[in-house]
Design brief:
There is one protein chain. The protein is of the alpha/beta class. It has a single domain (32-310), classed as Metal-dependent hydrolases (TIM Barrel), CATH 3.20.20.140. It has helices at 60-70, 88-96, 113-122, 141-152, 167-175, 198-209, 220-223, 242-251, 274-278, 281-284, 288-303; strands at residues 32-36, 74-78, 101-105, 124-130, 157-161, 181-183, 213-216, 256-257. The chain has an 8-stranded parallel β-sheet with strand order 1-2-3-4-5-6-7-8, with helices on both faces. Helix 1 (60-70) links the parallel strand 1 and strand 2 (74-78). It binds (1E,3Z)-4-hydroxybuta-1,3-diene-1,2,4-tricarboxylic acid. Residues 37, 80-82, 135, 161, 184, 222, 261, 265-266 line the site of (1E,3Z)-4-hydroxybuta-1,3-diene-1,2,4-tricarboxylic acid.
Length: 311
Amino acid sequence: MSGTTTFTKTPDWLDWYAGPSTPAFRVPAGAVDAHCHVFGPGAQFPFAPERKYTPCDASKDQLFALRDHLGFARNVIVQATCHGADNRAMVDACLASQGRARGVATVRRSVTDAELEQLHAAGVRGVRFNFVRRLVDFTPRDELMEIAGRIAGLGWHVVIYFEAQDLPELWDFFTALPTTVVVDHMGRPDVALPIDGPQFSLFLKFMHEHDNVWSKVSCPERLSRAGPSALGGERNAYRDVVPFARRVVETFPDRVLWGTDWPHPNLKDHMPDDGLLVDFIPHIAVTSELQRGLLVDNPMRLYWPEESARG
Ligand code: 0GY
């Protein structure tokens, strides 16, 4: 027996977009793609038994090729739920990056201090707590709070992923976290609702009242109802998400991050052209100063503080 497991993708799963276009927008020198993943390859890094989906392979070399094609300098590789708390694929990518990737891990209460230190040495700077029910099983809050207390000592932060309708119920837990807290994809607002309505206002209040809370203004392709259709030939996709992301960028310019979300797990309707996603950036960060904060200064402060001018 070779011991190698082969995996079959979840039905209807769309592979990542091969041959992405060259963005019209040139990201500033030193830009960081602060939300992306690696999947396997499954033959080398098997997917976790408890996963809720089986992805296509998306290797570190393919991620680094995309980084270079889009003009980014660095990546933050976020542990995807299909790998559970087995961080080996993410760690392997960080170690191979020659210092150009940091990681966000998933750990369980049973993780040892030595394992946390190993993750730190590999480039991990945060843990991800996922509250999206289609992606993970429930983890008791006391377990998560215990992990947060332990990783706080390493100077790490907590990345949280949740759906907008769950913020009220999660508020007390989130606001008790002892670290910097980074929200994935603006807390997944329903962009068909008014930007000044109760749902998005609660998210803005969350950031206003807690200056340890940051947000990724990522994933327009997940949030959009309008989809990727371009207006008049302009590279102007996902325009219904623009007011939401722009509001967050302009209100909290020092606490925002941006990422491709490559290889875009769980998309079944359309797979974005990552070049078009980069061209979303100047619509939400409309000055070069905002763009520099979003793409360089903020992620450097969080993930490479030792190299950051403002660290
Ligand atoms: C994302 C979004 C999703 C999936 C995951 O770890 C994951 O499986 O994050 C999703 O399905 O919405 O940020 O990649």
